[in-house]
Structures are given as structure tokens and as C-alpha cells.
Amino acid sequence: MTPLVLALPGNETLSKALAEELGWPMGVLAARRFPDGEAYVRVDDESVGRSVALVCTLDRPDEKVLPLLFAADALRELGAMRVGLVAPYLAYMRQDRRFQSGEAVTSRSFATLLSSRFDWLVTIDPHLHRVHGLGEIYSIPTRVVHAAPALGGWVAEHVERPLLIGPDAESEQWVADVARRASAPHLVLEKIRRGDREVEVSAPTVDGHRGRTPVIVDDIISSARTMSAAVRHLRAAGLSPPICLGVHAVFAGDAQHALEDAGAGLIVTTDAIPHATNRIGIAGLLAPAILSLAVEATEARRGV
Ligand code: R5P
């Protein structure tokens, strides 16, 4: 039987795009809150005997995770064959070790929780830092998709004479890849984070790049302090307002205003997290990974 795509609230647009890419139908999932704040979830029993891909991007995860787990449990109780999770933004990837005694290592706990409820997981550019692969913390099959082809394509199509800039050493991997795809030069700054909203980045050496359009690329725009610091340096160095390109549009609190106030030009993100700045679709990148994991899971169940 053809698998189903099911959207948790807020994930309808990406889910429809995925269903089209995959050629799978969309199932029906209703979710709301009772007056006391508890979650209500209902899935149609069309999932019997089918594989299901639940789509739920996991920014602001604490309010999303219980409904997601309830949906997964309901699907299994109703006889779904396999229940996979498409979480374009995968939360709790930053606290990947105990920096101070007594701290919860939330990336591990969260991975254990999701692994207990899902058969597979697909995500895009998770924040892998000290954990080098999801397999180190997730016990289910996972696929990590990279946004670089979509970002590079967007830059090549929309930006004249781009100069790609990564705000910190970690960003080198994807900035270099995006730059190569856009046939553009790149440079990487150094970052020192002094607190959740206190970030310093090194001043760039832009000699030889004047006349180019600066494009800052990062995986996550959360407080936007990292991008704002980079924007300020680039403006002070006499470059034009940088285009700010992010995979995950978390935009916590006043982040977007802070970035605009710093002097950013156009702010562009993928639709991994729905946001007004989304201009780059990722369904086409996610679909092959979903397909391969869903087929693998089905074959494993049949003992192929
Ligand atoms: C950090 O290492 C990431 O790659 C991003 O630079 C970071 O998550 C951005 O965070 P914020 O927007 O809060 O500065």
C-alpha cells in the first residue's frame, strides 16, 4: 500500500510539497489543545497496514513533542506498518555534552526519546558539532540531507558577483560547498560566543573582494547575534548590505529586528522552518532520503 504523509500543525505547506514529490497521498491529522492546555490528537484509520511519514519541524520543540509522540503512538495502535519522522529542523542538538557538572545532556535524551517512537528519521543540516553523526545518539536509521545544493542554486540564480562568508569555523563545510556551487569565492570568520546573546566575530579581510555582493551563510539563525556581528563588520569594511542566508529560520525573540538593525540586506531562508523569509524549498532534497528510508524499513520488516 502507498505510504501516507501526515502533517503536524504548522507543517502543512512542506508536507503537501513532499507528498507531491513522493507521489504519496496526504493523510488527515487533527490536533488542538483542551482548555487546560493538554494536547488532543486524532488520526484517521487510513493508516492501517501502511507506512506513514509524520512531518514535524522541531523548532520550539517543547510544545510540539508531546502531540508528535501521541500521533506516533496512535498510528501504531491503529496498525500503521512503519512510522517515520521528517523533522527538517532537529532540536536539542546543541547541548551535546555536560559543560558543567549536573547539566542534562539533552541531545542524547532527546535522541533516545525519538528513537523509542519512530522507525526512521530524516532531517536537514542538523547542528552536528561534537556529535559527528546522528548514529552516535539515535538508535534508528537516519538520513541527513544537506541544503547546500539549494542554497548554491539560489545564489547562482539571484546574486551578481557573490562573495560567500561563513561566520565561524564550523560553517566552513557548507559555505565552501555553497560557494563552489555558485562558482564564487568564500571566506570564513572566527567567532567567540560569550553567552546566549553575546557573540563576537573577527573582522574580515575583504581586500580583493570589493565590488562583490556579500552573502553570509549559516545553518541556524536563532538569536541572529552571530549574523548581526558579521553584518556589522562587513558594513564597517565598506561592503554593501550583506544578503543573509540561513537554512533554519529559528528567529528567537527580537532576532529578525536585530539583524535588520545591524544593516542586513535581504534575509533568505529555506522552508525547513516556516517563516516570512522562506524563499528556498527543500522538499525536492528531502524526498529521495524519505523514499530510501521508507523502502528500507519496509524491506527490513518483510525480511528482504
Ligand atoms: C553555531 O555554531 C551555529 O552554526 C550558528 O552560528 C548559531 O547557531 C547561530 O546562533 P545565533 O543566531 O543565536 O547567533
3D structure, described in words:
It is a single chain. With 304 residues, the protein is α/β, with parallel strands linked by helices. The chain is built from 8 helices and 15 strands. The strands form 4 sheets. It has a 6-stranded parallel beta sheet with strand order 9-8-12-13-14-15, with helices on both faces. The chain has a 5-stranded parallel beta sheet with strand order 1-4-5-6-7, with helices on both faces. A two-stranded antiparallel sheet has the order 2-3. α1 crosses α8, α4 packs across α5 and α6 runs parallel beside α7. The mean pLDDT is 94. Ribose-5-phosphate binds next to β12 and α6. Ribose-5-phosphate (R5P) binds next to β12 and α6.
List the helices and strands and how they pair.
Layout: E1 4-7, H1 12-22, E2 29-33, E3 39-43, E4 51-55, H2 61-77, E5 82-86, H3 106-117, E6 120-124, E7 142-145, H4 148-158, E8 162-166, H5 172-181, E9 186-188, E10 191-195, E11 198-201, E12 213-221, H6 225-236, E13 243-249, H7 255-262, E14 267-270, E15 278-280, H8 283-302
Parallel strand pairs: 1-4, 4-5, 5-6, 6-7, 8-9, 8-12, 12-13, 13-14, 14-15
Antiparallel strand pairs: 2-3, 10-11
Helix pairs in contact: 1-8, 4-5, 6-7
Short structural summary:
The protein is an alpha/beta fold and 304 residues long. The protein has helices at 12-22, 61-77, 106-117, 148-158, 172-181, 225-236, 255-262, 283-302; strands at 4-7, 29-33, 39-43, 51-55, 82-86, 120-124, 142-145, 162-166, 186-188, 191-195, 198-201, 213-221, 243-249, 267-270, 278-280.
